[in-house]
Write a structure and sequence with these properties.
D-amino Acid Aminotransferase, Chain A, domain 1; four-stranded antiparallel sheet; 2 domains; alpha+beta; Helix Hairpins; single chain; binds nicotinamide-adenine-dinucleotide; 35% helix
């Protein structure tokens, strides 16, 4: 380390400063539902830290915010739930080149091109895990730090989209279903209007309104909020004794399966074969992002084949088989600082 000299010392000091600042923002965003900077500003801090760690890999400490999932548990409000399988974040790309670099890493990891890519919208809500045993909803939890989340079962039971019992047959003994809880853009506008009329503070954005509405001590408050969910993954699948695992061999088949069980899946996903088609999808929703019912902050590209996902695996923070593409922010949300955020 000494060999790096002054540049290294400066980088180390800045990395420490950034790590502290990032963890503070995460606490405000995930636990308090009261961010004080825009997502773009937050992403810029993360990017700066990643750049420093790329230049000086010895600064990439396992405790660095770049190496773990952001979030925590508000133990005053909720009981803790240890996830049967970890909940991950997603790596971000901000340009065509960065996304193509990911595709190249996938090709190297597999030793070939993946069979297909699944493109879907990145829903700007909060991540929730639903546990079903023998087709019954037994628990719902927030992501927390990825290992341990918050028990929000009573709150989630008030959301009409989420079935208490799965439809159809062939339910596993136990399965975790992952998705995003959100408030549609139009409902968000109306909710804020009614909050202002009632002399209360409006929410800063739809993501915040969803998190603030779901993470309530009193589920009666949650019940009055226009919350919806879309599911986008499964984990910790345990078949019935003597039963089979999932018959699905791809992400898109998983969605078809979840749909037959009456779970809310997105209508916006598309399965394609080439990165050119992935870019077409990104361009299309870049132009039509406001025609979608829910707020999106980008697109998620996944390797569709489950065997290929398994081969690629995870880093400490995110799957290697998926990548988020973030659209450039549309306006500078400096006004966020002036808005008192509701909790
Ligand atoms: P992320 O939101 O960028 O990506 C991971 C999450 O995306 C997953 O947990 C998953 O639930 C969700 N997701 C949405 N649609 C999905 C889909 N179709 N398929 C799979 N997953 C999908 O990662 P993150 O680690 O939760 O947080 C980073 C985000 O939060 C950034 O946008 C960042 O700007 C914002 N943030 C902001 C602040 C702030 O202070 N403003 C603080 C922390 C984080």
């Amino acid at each position: 380390a000494a060999a790096h000299g002054r540049a290294f010392d400066t980088a180390r000091a800045r990395a420490k400063e950034l790590a502290l600042e990032i963890e503070e923002h995460r606490e405000r965003y995930y636990v308090k539902d009261a961010p004080t900077v825009s997502d773009a500003e937050f992403d810029a801090l993360m990017r700066e830290l990643e750049d420093i760690e790329d230049r000086f890999p010895e600064l990439r400490d396992p405790d660095s915010p770049t190496q773990h999932v952001g979030g925590g548990v508000d133990t005053e409000l909720f009981a803790e739930v240890v996830h049967a399988e970890r909940m991950y974040s997603l790596d971000n790309s901000f340009s065509r080149e960065e996304l193509d670099d990911w595709a190249a890493r996938v090709n190297r990891g597999l030793g070939r091109k993946p069979a297909r890519y699944l493109c879907e919208l990145k829903i700007d809500g909060l991540a929730v895990n639903l546990t079903y045993e023998h087709g019954r909803l037994v628990r719902a939890a927030t992501r927390g730090d990825g290992h341990t989340g918050e028990d929000i079962t009573a709150n989630v039971r008030t959301i009409a989209d989420i079935p208490a019992r799965l439809a159809g047959t062939g339910h596993p003994a136990r399965v975790d279903i992952r998705g995003e809880v959100f408030i549609p853009v139009e409902a968000f506008r109306q909710l804020n209007e009614s909050l202002v009329e009632a002399g209360k503070n409006p929410f800063a954005n739809p993501r915040n309104s969803a998190a603030g509405s779901l993470r309530q001590k009193d589920p009666q408050v949650t019940a009055q909020r226009p919350l919806h969910m879309l599911v986008h993954g499964i984990a910790a699948w345990q078949p019935e004794d003597g039963g089979e695992g999932t018959e699905a061999s791809s992400q898109s088949e998983v969605y078809a399966q979840l749909e037959t069980w009456g779970l809310p899946t997105s209508e916006y996903f598309r399965v394609v074969k080439t990165m050119d088609e992935v870019h077409d999808y990104i361009d299309f929703y870049g132009e039509h992002r406001h025609d979608v019912l829910h707020e999106i902050d980008g697109v998620v590209v996944k390797v569709d084949e489950l065997d290929e996902q398994y081969e690629l695996g995870f880093t400490s923070r995110a799957p290697r088989w998926a990548m988020a593409f973030k659209y450039p922010p549309e306006e500078v949300t400096t006004t966020l600082l002036d808005i008192r955020v509701n909790v």
